[in-house]
Amino acid sequence: MDKRALFDQFHRMESRVSAVGEDLIDVQEKLNQLIEENTTLQIENQHLRDRIDYLTKQMEENAASIEPEMSKSRLNLQKLYEDGFHVCNVYYGSRRLDDESCVFCLDVIYGEREQRH
């Protein structure tokens, strides 16, 4: 192999290594962006969970004061809910796992409704 061919081969290898290095840098930047986005979404999800917990507790506290004014049908729904069943239109009839609160059910039972005439 002559010197010129060896130099050309070395130059081709150098170009390929450089291209792989550039690709690696691009992938690393995209990975960093995904990690940042994932972290942001995790924080936002935690804030939303905290907000749901707060609103659920607030609705449950308000439910105690509303209870005497509830209609018979809402009292029946409340009894089903307390027995561990969903009464919302999303999960109706299915069991509530570990008696977790369901904002949809609480809205059906204690939420304010427009009065139709």
UniProtKB/TrEMBL annotation:
Cofactor descriptive note: Binds 1 zinc ion per subunit.
UniProt keywords, alphabetically: Coiled coil, Cytoplasm, DNA replication, DNA replication inhibitor, Metal-binding, Zinc
Binding residue positions for Zn(2+): 86, 88, 102, 105
Subcellular location: Cytoplasm, Nucleoid
Coiled coil feature spans: 24-51
Recorded superkingdom: Bacteria
UniProt GO BP: DNA replication; negative regulation of DNA replication
This protein's GO CC annotations: bacterial nucleoid
One Pfam family from the record: YabA
Entries under InterPro entries matching the protein: YabA
Cofactor annotation: Zn(2+)
Keyword Zinc in annotation: yes
GO molecular function: zinc ion binding
Subunit structure as annotated in this protein's UniProt entry: Homotetramer. Interacts with both DnaA and DnaN, acting as a bridge between these two proteins.
Function: Involved in control of chromosome replication initiation. Inhibits the cooperative binding of DnaA to the oriC region, thus negatively regulating initiation of chromosome replication. Inhibits the ability of DnaA-ATP to form a helix on DNA; does not disassemble preformed DnaA-DNA helices. Decreases the residence time of DnaA on the chromosome at its binding sites (oriC, replication forks and promoter-binding sites). Tethers DnaA to the replication machinery via the DNA polymerase beta sliding clamp subunit (dnaN).
HAMAP family according to UniProt: YabA
Family according to the record: Belongs to the YabA family.
Protein name: Replication initiation control protein YabA
Species name: Jeotgalibaca ciconiae
Name of the encoding gene: yabA
